[in-house]
Structures are given as structure tokens and as C-alpha cells.
Amino acid sequence: MCGRFTLASDPKTLTETFPDFEAPTELSPRYNIAPTQDVAVIANNGENKIEYFHWGLIPFWAKDAKIGNRMINARGETLGEKPAFRTAYKRRRCLILTDGFYEWRKMPGSRLKVPMYIRMESGKPFAFAGLWEVWHSPEGDDPVLSCTIITCAPNELMQQIHHRMPVILQPEAYDLWLTTTEQPPDALNDLLKPYPTEEMTAYSVSRLVNSPKNDSPDCVVPAQ
Hints:
CATH superfamily: SOS response associated peptidase-like
Radius of gyration: 17 Å
CATH architecture: Alpha-Beta Complex
Oligomer: single chain
Helix content: 10-25%
Order of helices and strands: EHEEEEHEEEEEHEHHE
Number of domains: 1
CATH topology: hypothetical protein yedk fold
Number of strands: 12
Distance between the termini: 26 Å
Shape: globular
């Protein structure tokens, strides 16, 4: 799964990485983004800009928004089957912007888990494959835009840390992923694969990241 990530890149860097999409002029660096918080996305809604959606997908048919707390991730292998995700997979896809994510590695013979920070070897931002939805509450409140991160089997690097990893899209896949026309699952399934190991790196970090209350550069400093 993917339960925490970062987006500390400045607007200039995001514009250089995602040149076809309008970036906010101001962007607060985030070092410990947690579920239920707002995350930066590019959705296939025709806006062509970076927006902020609630992390934890709320299906359009849900009666209670709290269901989104259990929908922070979606398994890529079953997107076409699950009622919560199958319609969004065809019609409502997004990029979720990041420059690194955390996972906790189990220590053999111990209950302790070591927090690991995983990012691109280049240090540049990248994009998770995501799905999004619009939810209207029964009370008639403002619509809620929400999203989920798709996961897949791990690459060789992630196998040493966890049994799943987020789907990271190659830039050349963005156009297909963000097309506004409905896509059958067969047209998209090949994109939901582990990212090349040689382009990624990982290192252990402080247990500060264990608490979402901690959101500072100290979270990504290599552990001593």
C-alpha cells in the first residue's frame, strides 16, 4: 500500500516536470502527507491544471463520506471488478503528484518496523496513477472531489521493503491516462506495472514520520 508521501518541490520544478499543466503560484512543501488530507492532482476533467482533492476515494453512490477512509489505495489487478473503482477506472483518472513516499520495512525477528523513504534517483517529482470521484452528500453540501492511489506488485527495490508499491506512471503514459474519453480496462492495464528499479532509491529515515503531526524536512533526513 501507500499510506504516506511527500511533495516538497517548488512550483518552478513542478512546472518543468509537468509543463502541460498549470501549477499553483504558491505551494507549501509537504513532508508527511497522510490519508484524508488534500493532495495535489491532475485530473482528466479538462482543467489542465494542478488541483487539490481529498485523499481517500468516496464512491459517487456512497451514503457516508467516511467510506473514503478505507479507500486510500486501490489494487491495480482488480480495478475493473470492484464497484468502488470500476467506473472511475473507465472515466475518471488522475495523476497524484509526489517526489517521494514512505513505507515501513519489517525487521526480522522483531516487531519493529523501520520507516523507509523511496524516491527517484534523480530527486525529481513524479506521478502516481490515481482515480478520482465527485461525491454529493445527502444533505446537499458542496461536492467533494476525492482520489485514491493505485498499487501493484513491487519491483526489486520494493520487494525488500514491502509486498506492494504505488503505480508510478512514465511521462509518456500521461496522455493516455488523462484522456477524457471512456477507456476500456484492456487499454490501460499495461500501465499498471512496477516502475523500473534502477531509476529509484530508498533509505531509512527517522521515526518522526510515524506521526502525521510531524511535517518538516527532518522527516526525509537519512537516519543515523
